[in-house]
Amino acid sequence: MTDATDPDILLDLMPFTKAIGAVFSRYTKEEVTARLDWAPERCTAGGLLHGGAVMALADSTGAACAFLNLPEGAAGTTTVESKTNFLRGVRDGYVEAVSRPLHIGRTVIVVETDVRDPQERLVARVLQTQLVLGA
To answer: Measured between alpha carbons, how far is 128 from 47 in angstroms, rounded to an integer?
Structure first.
């Protein structure tokens, strides 16, 4: 298995995450954190950070968290279910996603991700199930 404890390797494993401009700051089995800056090209017509950008960040940190928790011999992981509750919009600054495992099993890993703004207000909560892929 690839050593995904280096943030550059994490981004290389997830080219879309790199393309949207996400930056990882913490990447352990217990917690994965990444940030996405607000930018006009990531917004809706009203200047709010697009929900898809928020979800992409959360999916990326959740996937990285699941990857870091894969059981011995597993080849990878893929999202099979994701539920997002949006709680507020973001008009500037950035969002930070923090993912933590809720369940680490042989066939599925469940990850909860909180996305917050610079004032630490909850922007979204995401619960995702990652399928463990065989070797």
So the answer is: 27
Name the 3-class secondary structure at 3.
coil
Q: Which helix (H) or strand (E) holds 95?
A: strand 94-104
Q: Distance between CA 61 and CA 58 in Å, rounded?
A: 5
What's the pLDDT at 14? 85
> Which pLDDT value is given to residue 66?
96
Instruction: Identify the sign of the CA torsion 84, 87, 67, 37.
Output: positive
pLDDT at 1: 41
pLDDT tens column, 37-88? 999 999 998 999 999 999 999 999 999 999 999 999 999 999 999 999 999 9
Residue 37 half-sphere exposure, CB side, CA atoms within 13 Å?
A: 7
Domains of the chain, earliest start first: 7-133 (3.10.129.10)
**What torsion, rounded to 10 degrees, do the Cα atoms 51, 112, 57, 6 define?**
180
